[in-house]
Automatic annotation (TrEMBL):
Gene3D superfamilies: Cytochrome P450
Protein family (similarity comment): Belongs to the cytochrome P450 family.
Protein name: Cytochrome P450
GO BP terms: mycotoxin biosynthetic process
InterPro entries cross-referenced by the UniProt entry: Cyt_P450, Cyt_P450_sf, Cytochrome_P450_monoxygenase
GO molecular function, one term: monooxygenase activity
UniProt cross-references to Pfam families, sorted A to Z: p450
Amino acid sequence: MASADGSDWNRHRRCTAAAFSENVNEKVWERSGQEASKISAEFLSRESVSDTRSSMIRISFTVLLEACMGVGSNDRAIDTDEPGPDVATAENDLTTLLRILRPRPTSIIERLWFLRRNKTDLFTARCERLSKFISALICYRRGHPLPRKDLLASMIEYKDEKMLTDEEIRGNLFLFMFAGHETTANTLLYIVYLLAIFPHWQSWAAEEIDAFVSTSGPNSNLTYREIFPRLKRLQAIMYETLRLYGPVVNIMRKTSSSQYQPEKVTTFDSRDVMIPGNVRINIMTPALHTDPEYWGPDSLSWNPGRWMKYSADNKNAAPGLASEKLDQSKIDHLLSWADGARVCPGKRFSQFEIIAVLLNLFVQARVEVVPGPSMNLDEAQVEALKAVQQSRTALTLQMQEPSSVRLGWCLR
């Protein structure tokens, strides 16, 4: 799907987009909340946490497999006399591949690991084993269909109608496993770090969470469709993080004219630009997302409040939140999921997952940066912000050494 174009891309889109339905979104919300609650309890039981990234990957991978592929975290891919690769092994393989492909580390010890001769062999071995897991997963789901339709079921159905080949199904599953879950996990990682670095924004989010819980009750039967729109501040935090630290730095496009005729493109500031046909265009999202002409003089600062506009229309909101609305015009300028016909099919999937995880991580807990030796809290926050700002691009934008920052969790 990622490499297809034109009518070929439309075919892949049709075979995958239908799977991101209301039933799948409901499963995403439910499992994201459950996994986040488990991780929250784990964090609270520890003096400090330095492996936040692996925890976010675990959440995202579990949600992706269960919601899109119908496989639980304790399942094996095939049920035969010779068991196939299990989910835990697949998660480990995927994590290893992402580690190999991340930005080159800077410490001497890690550089030696990076330059080891058998790194290529390790990469190949993990790819082969992950490929076997995907093939086994497809075979398993053919023999064990679910009552609900998910991504894998949708692609198997289109395979039976001869619209997808086995190779294309494997490729799309690999894409969603490799890119889909990592982008969400990285976004959650950045949000957790930034909320620890800027505690006043964490308190801002907690005020909304407390207001929601007090009006809905801890055992609310509200659906995700009713809850999600009410968590405007959490959405603002998500959007602001994606604005500055979105996983996709470059969006590649091409003008579609086969006649090599100029094609008119309208810019954000309503100017018409003529671009020749069959020309590849590289859209630099960080430049668009930090343009001071649109985002203001503080365009490089992390400020979730910029996504709010204020009115007194909503009389039913909790005190202090009544006048807040998300600024849709700013949301329309965010390209983290791309835009137009080729918008990411999992856009709502990832949004529901991120907000559900944040709600359940912070409903009872707070996070802060743990100062190192001879360091006060302010200094620790400055160092943590440096670690965030020194992110580099591999497959996606990533912090180079997130484990260098220790976080502490406590009940609030």
